[in-house]
Amino acid sequence: MSSLEQLYQQVILDHAHERHGAGVVDAGVGASSHQVNPTCGDEVTLGVSVDEGGRIATLAWDGDGCSISQASLSMLNDLVGGKDAPEVSVLYRAMDEMMHSRGHGVPDETLDLLGDAAALEGTSQFPNRIKCALLGWYALRDALAKLGTDIAGGTR
């Protein structure tokens, strides 16, 4: 295993352990979404609210699953907090592009945009793990759609 692969593996394990944003999703959030990955058993409930300016004001999630899904949720929390819908849409599309690259790589600009989530790029080589990495992003997309915001813009 190369030193870069070891670093990426450690980033994933750190996020899976620390779980940024994990907590009780209470009734006070603007909208929530419950998503399940039946092939892996991953499960998440994600709640989000936006402020008057359309920025993500609160994001909380509670779930169980593999290290990939838990790390991805933690990374998502770090990436989207305080961002407005257009910014979140760019991040959503970048994550979607990376995870559907089938390990063929994506531009460095995409990886730079995704910060720690770029560590999940290798996961795109394993079709049964792609949904693990995207589960939280799908929950965010669904919750924001319930608030009238489409961040997918025609992506999968």
Task: Describe the protein in words.
This protein is an alpha+beta fold and 156 residues long. It has one domain: Alpha-Beta Complex (Sufe protein. Chain: A), CATH 3.90.1010.10. Helices cover 46% and strands 16% of the residues. The chain has 5 helices and 3 strands. It has a 3-stranded antiparallel sheet with strand order 1-2-3, with helices on one face. The longest helix has 20 residues, at 127-146.
Question: Key terms for this structure?
Answer:
3-stranded antiparallel β-sheet; Sufe protein. Chain: A; alpha+beta; 46% helix
Short description:
The protein is α+β, with helices and mostly antiparallel strands. It has helices spanning 3-18, 67-80, 85-99, 108-114, 127-146; strands spanning 31-37, 42-50, 56-64.
